[in-house]
TrEMBL record:
It comes from Tricholomella constricta. This is S-adenosyl-L-methionine-dependent methyltransferase. GO terms for molecular function: O-methyltransferase activity; protein dimerization activity. Transmembrane segments: none annotated. Residues 90-161 form the O-methyltransferase dimerisation domain.
Length: 453
């Protein structure tokens, strides 16, 4: 079958997108205090690593990532590409080894590099096998092999340090999540579970044998579950940083709220986002609500270390909440739900929002902060809630925005839930008695604002 006319010149067009995006990125670095894009071998954090990316830079990186992947898929033989995709299953396993045995921490002892014999002795595992694991990761630019069988950290492997909250999230994905994903076909083929929307009929349930939902497990159903729950709570700090969720702190007009306005973080875990609001807007009165274990962890461990002034000034209230059993603290100006609805099937989402609605006043607002799923088909610009990527790139940026689709699969595997489109959020909110106000484009995620209907 002949190629369609629109496919002619795709290679050159994709290369041009890559070139132009790279120029934008280099120009952004050139304006920083260290005006060069750092090498992967550079172990010194760059000032831009901890800053929120401006929209133009974020868009250019997404174009670059999407176009590079689409270009490779376009020019390589299909069987070559698909075979490599099949074999990507080994990368999470190797990352799990590196995280479990704290390889990055050990390599910190010798920044120039450590021989595998010494490294394996300190890690307590077989050196020949560990070397093969690290060689795969080094070939994917995680760690580096500085000479034969001598490995060292690089910019990417530093993210695996046990002191980095992202490493806790890495253990979640490469451990319980990865094990469960292998059972997804079994669940989909099951005559009962395949069509089920219940949070207890998941690939994760089949993997663990646990009959409750993931959050019951995290709340201490077993000692292992409690350990994983605490790990997941810390991992959410790393998730927020990596996804630049903090864009909501600067992009949403919190400063327009009156002094003393109350913001309730519903299901906020240990309060990663609330911490950022507390530091940026000291005039806000903050309420953090989640299940008891996370609230205890937040009140006794996290906030005394990260933001003791908010506790001393009585700007933060900690209160346990089961958002299925009843409403959050009543009468707040803003009810903020970050990555809450994506954890639950539609029926449960409506129940959560109805309980929030019960707590609201006519002036209250609900902010739902999540991924807003984009379809992969090109639409007329006027019909799309999002700016579409330039052709011939996939309109949803392809690999450049793959995280939202990966997380959608994570939700299916672990909770029988999903990431949603804007239309799905509006439909759920209307069923709960809420009216749509606005979609805020804030970095990688979106914020959907609602009021009482």
């Amino acid at each position: 079958m002949a190629s369609s006319p629109s496919s002619h010149g795709q290679v050159s067009a994709l290369v041009a997108l890559i070139t132009n995006a790279a120029k934008v990125i280099e120009a952004h670095y050139a304006e920083s205090s260290r005006p060069v894009v750092p090498s992967l071998d550079d172990l010194t954090p760059h000032p831009l690593d901890s800053e929120l990316s401006p929209p133009k830079l974020r868009d250019s990186i997404q174009i670059l990532e999407g176009a590079c992947a689409q270009l490779s898929a376009t020019v390589a033989r299909p069987n070559h590409t698909m075979l490599n995709r099949f074999m990507q299953i080994y990368e999470p396993g190797c990352l799990h080894v590196a995280l479990t045995f704290k390889v990055a921490d050990i390599l910190e002892l010798k920044p120039p590099g450590m021989h595998i014999s010494e490294l394996s002795e300190k890690a307590g595992i077989n050196g020949e096998k560990l070397g093969r694991v690290l060689r795969l990761l080094a070939s994917k630019h995680i760690f580096r092999e500085v000479s034969k069988d001598v490995f060292a950290n690089n910019r990417l492997s530093l993210q695996l340090l046990s002191t980095n909250p992202l490493s806790s999230l890495g253990l979640h994905f490469t451990d319980e999540n990865n094990k469960a994903t292998t059972l997804l076909p079994d669940v989909l083929a099951d005559p009962e579970w395949g069509d089920s929307q219940a949070a207890e009929n998941t690939a994760w349930n089949k993997s663990t044998g646990y009959t409750g939902n993931l959050f019951g497990w995290f709340e201490g159903a077993t000692p292992e579950g409690a350990k994983q729950g605490a790990r997941f709570g810390l991992g959410m700090i790393g998730w927020g940083s990596a996804t630049e969720a903090g864009a909501v702190v600067t992009g949403f007009p919190w400063e327009r709220l009156a002094p003393g306005a109350t913001v309730c973080d519903v299901g906020g875990g240990i309060g990663n986002m609330t911490l950022q609001l507390a530091k940026a807007y000291p005039k806000l009165r903050l309420k953090l609500q989640d299940l008891p274990d996370r609230i205890i962890q937040a009140q006794s461990e996290v906030w005394p270390k990260e933001c003791p002034e908010a506790i001393a000034e009585n700007r933060i209230e900690f209160k346990a909440l089961d958002f299925f059993a009843g409403p959050p603290i009543k009468g707040c100006d803003v009810y903020y739900l970050k990555n809450i609805l994506h954890d639950w099937p539609t029926k449960e989402c409506i129940k959560i929002l109805r309980n929030v609605r019960e707590a609201m006043t006519p002036d209250s607002r609900v902010l739902i902060h999540e991924y807003i799923i984009q379809h992969a088909d090109r639409m007329k610009d006027a019909e799309s809630a999002f700016a579409q990527a330039p052709e011939p790139l996939l309109p949803n940026y392809g690999v450049g925005r793959i995280r939202q689709y990966n997380l959608d699969m994570d939700m299916m595997v672990m909770l029988n839930s999903k990431e949603r489109t804007l239309e799905e959020f509006i439909s759920i909110a209307e069923d709960a008695g809420l009216g749509f106000v606005k979609l805020w484009h804030l970095g990688e995620l979106g914020v959907v604002e609602f009021r009482l209907a």
